[in-house]
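User: I've been trying to design a sequence by hand for this structure and keep getting stuck. Would you show me what you'd pick, starting by listing the structure so we're on the same page?

Assistant: Good idea, let's start from the same input. This is the structure you sent:
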């Protein structure tokens, strides 16, 4: 198996690195530590993403008809790796490119594609996802937010929780139940809802993860046209699972973890800690996890490059990435010691980011269950 990048891909990575050196502000390290939901990072992304779009890089792996350049998924993987190494200067817009846009391409009407895809490819769109609910977190199929037909509209009532980036979002990828008598996977639909629609209320949830990271969204008699539905009514679970397959490997967290690990190894050497076999062992384990996460993610990208449908490989890659981030963040506390507890310290900032990896896109436990059933084909009892 060939693991080398092509000359063209290596040249793109070099150009992208130079572009980041030239366009990230001098205080970017500090801005990025506040997390991709912070005011400063969201404001920067609104200027930065159009620059990426002008270079033809933001959605280069999309078809040309939707604003892309027909580049391979591998080219997009390079973009993601370099962005996450730098603390993701695209802010929430990384979601648009990774899974919102591709899902609309697959399930959207021509009107929806024309309305939503150009702003994403131009770096002008911000989205959030309305998935989790107070009584339906990782068990998404237990959702209770209702969208009932009322003439030519849906009337939506319910609430979402742990919603990221919705304070700046223009639209919400909202998962609702359109059949009030349905259970579990049946009777679910996806609506593309403007966030300025009357009846939507947003409340921030203070958290340790970072500034402006989590919110509650309350929907009271929110009225949207039936044309806002993405895909067939009551068959939205297929749409959701398709989008989740993209999202689970959309953030190459292993790239950031590996970079942090390099810094930790250098610091351990400076402090004479490499004489400790326990530290050496933990450095090796963390490196192995980062490499495992990278290669398992590449497996998913290779499937996409061959136009294969999503598989449980996405769940495997996601769990490996979570394990890598946890190993690196815990090792950072051990090597830095008490100084790592200071807010804004690189170790503390990485730990906060790692905390979200085990919850977002389904908890680690949920992904392990999916691996057991779909990948290992183990019996449920």
């Amino acid at each position: 198996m060939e693991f080398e990048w092509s000359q063209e891909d290596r040249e793109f990575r070099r150009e992208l690195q130079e572009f980041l050196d030239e366009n990230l502000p001098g205080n970017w390290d500090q801005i990025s530590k506040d997390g991709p939901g912070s005011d400063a990072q969201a404001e920067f992304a609104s200027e930065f993403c159009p620059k990426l779009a002008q270079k033809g890089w933001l959605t280069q792996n999309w078809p040309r008809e939707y604003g892309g350049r027909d580049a391979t998924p591998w080219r997009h993987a390079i973009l993601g790796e370099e962005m996450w190494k730098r603390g993701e200067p695209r802010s929430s817009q990384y979601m648009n490119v990774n899974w919102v846009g591709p899902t609309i391409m697959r399930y959207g009407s021509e009107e929806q594609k024309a309305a939503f895809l150009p702003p994403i490819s131009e770096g002008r769109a911000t989205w959030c996802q309305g998935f989790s609910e107070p009584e339906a977190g990782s068990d998404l199929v237990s959702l209770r937010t209702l969208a009932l037909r009322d003439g030519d509209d849906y009337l939506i009532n319910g609430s979402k929780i742990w919603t990221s980036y919705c304070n700046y979002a223009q639209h919400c990828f909202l998962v609702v139940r359109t059949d009030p008598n349905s259970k579990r996977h049946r009777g679910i639909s996806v609506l593309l809802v403007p966030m300025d629609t009357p009846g939507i209320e947003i409340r921030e949830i203070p958290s340790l993860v970072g500034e402006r990271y989590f919110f509650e969204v309350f929907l009271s008699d929110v009225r949207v046209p039936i044309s806002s539905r993405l895909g067939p009514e009551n068959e939205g679970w297929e749409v959701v699972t398709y989008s989740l397959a993209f999202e689970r490997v959309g953030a190459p967290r292993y790239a950031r973890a590996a970079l942090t690990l390099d810094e930790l190894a250098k610091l351990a050497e400076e402090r004479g800690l490499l004489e400790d076999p326990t530290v050496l062992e933990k450095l090796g384990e963390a490196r192995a996890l980062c490499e495992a996460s990278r290669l398992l993610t590449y497996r998913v990208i290779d499937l996409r490059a061959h136009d294969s449908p999503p598989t449980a490989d996405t769940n495997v890659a996601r769990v490996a990435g979570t394990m890598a981030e946890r190993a690196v963040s815990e090792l950072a506390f051990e090597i830095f010691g008490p100084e790592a507890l200071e807010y804004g310290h690189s170790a503390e900032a990485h730990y906060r980011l790692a905390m979200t990896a085990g919850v977002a896109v389904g908890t680690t436990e949920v992904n392990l269950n999916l691996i057991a059933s779909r990948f290992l084909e183990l019996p449920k009892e």
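That's my pick for every position. To get oriented when you compare it with your attempt: Strands lie at 127-130, 146-150, 153-163, 171-177, 188-194, 200-205, 214-225, 229-230. The mean pLDDT is 86.
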